[in-house]
Amino acid sequence: MVARISMPTEGTPTEGTPTEGTPNEGTPTQGTPNEGTPTQGQGEYQVRINIIGAGEAINVIESWALEDNYYGSMKPEKSVAGEVNQKARGYPYIQSSEGKTGTMVVKTAVPIEGPLNIVYLDGRSDSGLPHTRGRKGIALPVFLLWDPRPNTLNHEIVHLSQKQFKERWFAFYRQKWSFELATEVQFTSVPLKWRARRRINPDTLGSPYVVWKGRFIPLAVFVSDISPDLKKCKRGFWDLEMSQWTWEVPPGWVEMFGSGFNDEHPNEIAAHWIDGSAGVERRRFFHLNHI
Q1: Rg (CA), the chain
Q2: CA atoms of 100 and 137, how far apart (whole Å)
Q3: How far apart are alpha carbons 65 and 59 in whole angstroms?
Q4: pTM of this prediction exceeds 0.85
Q5: Are 151 and 276 in contact (CB under 8 A)?
């Protein structure tokens, strides 16, 4: 999910679009890709992306639901955060009538298996936030069809790579960033008050709880549980050692990850670094440290 988590609103990063000349990551290239394998040296990949037309989009959305159970996971009996997340997504999850069938080949720095499918949604579905579905689906708000912006496509490709190659990514997070998947004992120690306000992120389904340096569990929570808004969330941390909640970043967090984003999960941190929105140096980090 592409969103800066802050108060009171979140910014929307920009979308990768076709360009002429030598392609950058997240932009179309010519030729037939050997999907999921390097193309020109270590760390360069390309993948075919199908843009799904409005007539076929409903079938693709239904197939995504069967694959990842995104909205099904928000039922109160499935998640303690289900009720507030349903309330935050009051508008139906539906395709836009503007989507046109197409295809392109995109170059990226992360391992990826295709072909991928893009569906353009009604701009009010999921509050207009770009996100991924299943292992090969990208959902974009229709306004990005009319007003494309650099980097968002690349950001979402990174999220699909994280889903397809989960073990490789978490090995990286563990070695480079000191993140581990939280155990059940660890994440259930977070008080229900905070777990019940957690924003469910379709880009971290299956592994929403992580621990940093064996001590801190970051969570993005709704500012209001009465009138929750996907664009009005704030990140906090549960301190396992002190058994307390804090809005303050832990010691060393800013030095490692910076302060420009308030990401609650290494999947989001990595996607922002790779799409370039966190700066040139952090983007270069992934050119030097391949997944």
Answers
A1: 18
A2: 16
A3: 10
A4: yes
A5: yes
Q: Which residue has the tokens 């996100």?
A: 131
Would you call 215 exposed, middle or buried from its count of C-beta atoms within 10 A (0-12, 13-18, 19+)?
middle
User: At 147, is the pLDDT very low, low, confident or very high (cuts 50, 70, 90)?
Assistant: confident
**Paired tokens of 231:** 């664009």
pLDDT at 42: 52
> What does DSSP assign to residue 198?
B
E strand or H helix at 273: helix 266-274
Element (H, E) at 166: helix 166-172
Mean pLDDT of 224-238: 97
Whether residue 156 contacts residue 272, with contact meaning beta carbons closer than 8 Å, is answered with no
Which tens digit of pLDDT belongs to each residue from 232-277? 999 999 999 999 999 999 999 999 999 878 899 999 999 999 999 9
Residue carrying the six token digits 């709704």: 222
β-pairing, 131-133 with 137-141?
A: antiparallel
* pLDDT, tens digit, 9 for 90 and up, residues 115-127: 999 999 999 999 9
Residues contacting 281, CB < 8 A, separation 6+:
none
> DSSP class of residue 66?
H
Residue where the block lists tokens 């910076």: 258
CA–CA dist 191, 188 (Å, integer): 7
Backbone angles phi, psi at 274, to 5 degrees: -75, -35
Q: How far apart are the C-alpha atoms of 165 and 4, rounded to whole Å?
A: 24
The pLDDT value recorded for residue 202 is: 98
Greatest Cα pair distance in the chain: 55
Report yes or no: 229 and 251 within 8 Å, Cβ to Cβ.
Answer: no
pLDDT score at 150: 67
